[in-house]
Amino acid sequence: MADTKREIERKYEATPGLRLPDLTKAGIARTEEAATTELDAVYHDTPDLRLAASGITLRRRTGGADPGWHLKLPVAPGVRDEITTDPTDLLPGELADLVRSRTRGADLVPVVRLLSSRDVHRLLDEDGTELAELSRDTVVAERLHGRRATAQWDEIEVELAQDTDPALLDAVDKRLRKAGLHRAAAPSKLARALAETGAAPAPSPRPGTPRTAGDHVLAYLHEQAEALLSHDPGVRRDLPDAVHQMRVATRRLRSALRTYRKILDREATRPLVDELKWLAGELGAARDQEVLAHRLRARVAELPGTLVLGPVEARLTAWAVSGDTDTRTTALAALDSERYLRLLDALDALLADPPLRKAARTDPEAALPDAVLREYGRTADRVEQALGLTPSTERDTALHEARKAAKRARYAAEAATPALGRPARRFAKRMKAVQKVLGDHQDSVVARDTVRELAVAANGAGEPSFTWGLLYGHEEARAAARETELPEVWSRAADPGLRAALRS
């Protein structure tokens, strides 16, 4: 069974014999020195160091208070999630799954061994509660893969205890810097060991400063591809919003490839577009279930207790749990499939050797506005068609199609924002407002269908169906309100001056 903790720390260069400064002026009441600990950690990676290139570390460590396999996933600079399992000989499958999108089936082999002699100082408040741990490590690194080499250094690491205000790190940082310490250049011991033994991973291919229209589109694609990969472990760990963020990255990739077809050859990208559509669909069931369950729970909570008749909350919970299990199984099956790995390989291949067309070499101010405005035209056609229909199932479908077009126009503008600046940012904001109104309308359509099914099931079980009918009516009224709101929101998005600004 894996344990997870959020690791927030800072590392500093140290020299033998350096005396630690007094930290009581940094909000620390007193320090408590613990016994020296000997740590032995073997780091694993693919032979070409794919994990290290992504800032991920995987090790098996003995000694200390938490021996076992440790996987560290980057969250932000100086912040990582550390997942720990028992000290088995073989790599646990749950950790291997969390890095599968990076390793793609490549072997994980020992690459570095670190022997650390650690002096620990517990930083305490007045009540004796631990606020942080300051450790001083003497490290000996040995490269295990390729040419053998060694390195040695001293470092100081300050790691916050759980629930400690991160501002404490800033206060400690001031005292350490005043004492002559400098922040470590390497983000981790592994990164430093690889660099000092001549085995640093090759940098991931990234476009330089965008200049042409093609540069800007590729920079956006690189950003979304990395987002897709970085959210993969979160989906597997069932973290809040991870499915949504991974699905958004997938949709943004697909949208950009379709929108900027004059930049990237459409025939060459079509197979990848189809696969991204498949992945978004597999993730979509889980996300849609999550949104719908949250919506229905909120609607029930809004009702006075006297209007909640029968086991409404129990039935809703049972439905949500059952649906969550089914949709999560679908999402994980997709991430565990060979098809998913082929998709990731195809995405890498596209970014490494993009099928650029002639327009990719032009100035972004010339090529990108046309693509954004083409998506606007598609959205305008669909919104106007929907507004011309009377309230009906046909109109609900038309509004849903308009929503998808507005989202694509928004993504097109977001991709162009680094090049076009404020006009594109304003356009994206207006399209997001349209998307939000249409999205709430579509969520109401789906909610009504589900509420009706729950009402039928409740009635069949002899339970009162009054509350379900009430919820249905509330959703119906909400959808009508969104339809009334849409013309005004659309008129702001359709401002001719806003479109003209994109070309200026």
What is the compact description of this entry?
This protein is of the alpha+beta class and 504 residues long. The chain has 15 helices and nine strands. The chain is 55% helix and 17% strand.
Describe the structure.
The chain has helices at residues 50-53, 93-98, 100-103, 167-178, 189-196, 213-236, 242-259, 266-302, 312-335, 338-352, 364-387, 393-420, 422-460, 466-493, 496-503, and strands spanning 3-14, 30-33, 37-45, 57-62, 68-76, 79-85, 109-124, 130-143, 150-160. It is of the alpha+beta class. It has an eight-stranded antiparallel beta barrel with strand order 1-6-5-4-3-7-8-9. Helix 8 (266-302) packs across helix 10 (338-352) and helix 12 packs antiparallel against helix 13 (422-460). It is globular and about 80 Å long.
Name the descriptors.
9 strands; eight-stranded antiparallel barrel; single chain; 15 helices; 504 residues
Principal-axis shape equals: globular
Q: Note the total helix count.
A: 15
Order of helices and strands: EEEHEEEHHEEEHHHHHHHHHHHH
| Low-confidence runs | none
What oligomeric state do these chains adopt?
Answer: single chain
Q: Biggest sheet, in brief?
A: 8 strands, antiparallel, barrel
Report, as a whole number of angstroms, the end-to-end distance: 58 Å
Which band does the percent of strand residues land in? 15-25%
User: In order across it, which strands form the biggest sheet?
Assistant: 1-6-5-4-3-7-8-9
**Strands, total number:** 9
The secondary structure category is: alpha+beta
Helix content: 55-70%
Radius of gyration: 27 Å
Rounded mean pLDDT score: 93
